[in-house]
Amino acid sequence: MARDYDGEQIPTVHDLAAVDPHREGPGFEQVVFRGIDQMIGLTRIGPEKPDDEPHSHPFEQSNLLVDGRLDFVVDDEVLELEPYDALTIPPEVPHTSRAVPGETATLLAFWPLREDRLDATAYQDEFPDL
């Protein structure tokens, strides 16, 4: 079960800068960290990243821009984010992020536990093999 964990391994600290990206491409790399019921996506977005079409999902997503600047498109509205700006996107609302020319941004996305991202957390010994 995805919520099972090894209590002897918790708490464990992981340096996300040392974790190999789960998803990467031009101007984009993402590392995922999980808890029992939640996940964090640490994403670096650079000006080389092509613009993606908006997508949506059945859960809320909260975001925090750590550094850089980033345009977030939410339901066709462009929002310019600067460091420490936080943004929540309700379920089923189309959204995407776009790099600002000349900027590399670091974004934290907070999700519920996602089955489609579990394989990205295989480095975490506190959770049994699924």
Description:
- The protein has 130 residues and is mainly beta.
- A six-stranded antiparallel β-sheet has the order 1-2-3-9-4-7, with no helix packed on it.
- It is globular, with a radius of gyration of 15 Å.
- The termini are close together.
- It has no helices and nine strands.
Structural class: mainly beta
Biggest pleated-sheet summary: 6 strands, antiparallel
Share in β-strands: 35-45%
Percent in helix: under 10%
Any idea what the shape is?
Answer: globular
Our measurement of the CA-to-CA distance between the termini, rounded to an integer number of angstroms, reads 7 Å
Count the strands?
A: 9
Given the structure, what is the number of helices? Answer: 0
Q: Give the quaternary arrangement of the chains.
A: single chain
Which H/E pattern describes the elements? EEEEEEEEE
Given as residue ranges, the uncertain stretches (5+ residues, pLDDT < 50) are none
Cross-sheet strand order for the largest sheet: 1-2-3-9-4-7
Mean pLDDT value: 92
Radius of gyration: 15 Å
